[in-house]
Design brief:
7 strands; five-stranded mixed β-sheet; about 180 residues; two-stranded antiparallel sheet; 4 helices; Glutaredoxin; alpha/beta
Length: about 180
């Protein structure tokens, strides 16, 4: 993608007809990322039965609009790990400009945790969005990954109700689509 850390959002930024994230049943790709303390972490190191991975940023209205519902899922599914993959600013502006460094990106993610009180684990992609682009590049996609690191569920746009139904089915050993 040309100009990954754009300074101004444009509707042409995303090809909404061509979601390219990993397919259900395929191995999820692991990445070495940063945590909120700029320590190295692995994307797929999680302790729960499944990992619910949502792609988001503090300036993404779709992500922000679903945060409360996703926090409810954290409470409802204590045996599941929940992480946010922090990517570029979806709508950069005066308060949150586009990232010019990893430190700036980590600073925005820290504000998501402290100011917005995000309860999920936040992991920060590199400055070029390597993991974000590998997981489809959309601003609010969601993936459920099993302990064997296979994608069990994916959605190009997070729908909290569909995510909850998928978790219920997966934890009951049923296919997601029942």
């Amino acid at each position: 993608m040309e100009n990954y850390n754009y300074d101004e959002f444009s509707s042409n930024t995303y090809n909404l007809d061509d979601f390219r994230g990993p397919e259900v049943g395929t191995k999820a790709e692991d990445f070495s990322l940063s945590d909120l303390n700029n320590e190295n972490v692995q994307l797929l190191d999680f302790s729960g039965k499944f990992l619910v991975l949502e792609l988001g940023s503090i300036t993404c209205p779709l992500f922000q609009g679903r945060r409360e519902g996703m926090s409810d899922l954290v409470d409802q599914f204590p045996s599941v790990s929940f992480s946010v993959l922090y990517f570029r600013e979806a709508h950069p502006g005066g308060n949150f400009p586009s990232h010019k460094s990893l430190d700036e990106k980590i600073g925005c993610a820290q504000q998501l945790k402290s100011t917005d009180e995000e309860r999920r684990n936040i992991i920060i992609d590199d400055i070029n969005g390597t993991a974000h682009l590998s997981y489809g590049g959309y601003p609010n996609a969601i993936f459920i990954i099993d302990k064997n690191r296979y994608v069990a569920f994916r959605s190009d746009w997070n729908n909290v109700s569909a995510t909850k139904t998928a978790l219920i089915n997966l934890l009951d050993g049923k296919p997601v689509d029942t």
